């Protein structure tokens, strides 16, 4: 019991450092991890080894994927491909179904685009629709934001689900396929259906955020925009389905395994995008590389947070805490997938960051998955769903939404926080249903 109490105190300390003391999450992880190592009896000369191993093991498989994914997302936005995708979907769905058009846009663009970048770049598109059709901003915009949030929490190559796949030794392609299956109903319920209850919320988006759009003649073609933005998903899906439909042996299996590696998927996708959305549209290579450089700056802090979570996980592993937790949890009358969701949800409420919540929960659950007899891909999605639960005043996304839409805190909780909660609960329900069949 003493060991479990130490773990609990360390998590509380982490929460307080990030939410109350306003520490940078990476520094908070380092401080708490070292303190936990000392308290749990790791020898002084071994603590720094745990720190270095935690950072190395976590970032070793992720830094390339997250970096390349950020570059691809930035180019999709800067080239006008995101704007073109929106235009096509708006024409396809028509004025009566604007919400659905924006929701699909958020889902398509949200797959390669990181959440904060996606939010800043896509919200002006919401406002352009709001101004053009004189419709309530929250009612029209929430479905797109629900889609962006779900892709951020559920689908690789986003940082948290990608890191969870690595930590829990899941399969990237299967996690993506299952994640899409869960994402669609979650977005529909939390987006178009839930937003029908929000038509009365008055919102006047600030003039500052009125859109600056690219001229139509300068936008890439629709096929180019869709195929380039979705290429990582296409490659991962194809290389996952092919072995399930036909037996592969010898060189064919080697080629499929090579192409299905997430690093190769993202590299191939970025190289294609460099030509299709970059050089093919008249951009000089230096300008494209400048976009990639800015993209890395956007995700640098995310990489450090991921690394910090890896340190805490390693300290828990090296100290033997994981074994103790495993013995304690085995007697709990709770389904393992619900347990993973619950741990992530509690940390999310306390800390605010979905990434921190997901990675911290994975650090606790990961080492005991073999004893749980649970599908690792579904555990990734369960923890990912839990990490989105009830965003409130300690989450930067809460404040971005509030300020952009010019809402009161009450209306922000009524719309944004409830949307995130619905997405989270729908994700858990979907995971439990999938668990019956896979």
Commentary on this structure:
This protein is an all-alpha fold and 438 residues long. The protein is globular and about 65 Å long. It has helices spanning 2-19, 25-39, 44-60, 63-78, 81-93, 98-110, 115-133, 137-154, 159-167, 172-195, 222-245, 250-260, 262-278, 285-318, 321-329, 336-351, 354-365, 369-372, 376-386, 396-405, 409-437.
Shape: globular
Structural class: mainly alpha
Low-confidence stretches: none
Q: Gap between N and C termini, in Å?
A: 35 Å
How many DSSP-defined strands?
0
Subcellular location: Cell membrane
Keywords: Cell membrane, Membrane, Transmembrane, Transmembrane helix, Transport
Membrane topology: Multi-pass membrane protein
Main location: membrane
Write the layout of secondary structure elements.
Blueprint: H1 2-19, H2 25-39, H3 44-60, H4 63-78, H5 81-93, H6 98-110, H7 115-133, H8 137-154, H9 159-167, H10 172-195, H11 222-245, H12 250-260, H13 262-278, H14 285-318, H15 321-329, H16 336-351, H17 354-365, H18 369-372, H19 376-386, H20 396-405, H21 409-437
Helix pairs in contact: 1-2, 2-3, 2-14, 3-14, 4-13, 4-14, 5-6, 5-11, 6-7, 6-8, 7-8, 8-10, 8-21, 9-17, 9-19, 10-11, 10-19, 10-21, 11-12, 11-13, 14-17, 16-17, 16-19, 17-19, 19-21
Membrane topology: Multi-pass membrane protein
Transmembrane segments: 5-21, 27-47, 59-77, 97-130, 137-155, 175-194, 226-246, 258-278, 299-317, 337-362, 374-393, 413-437
Family: Belongs to the GntP permease family.
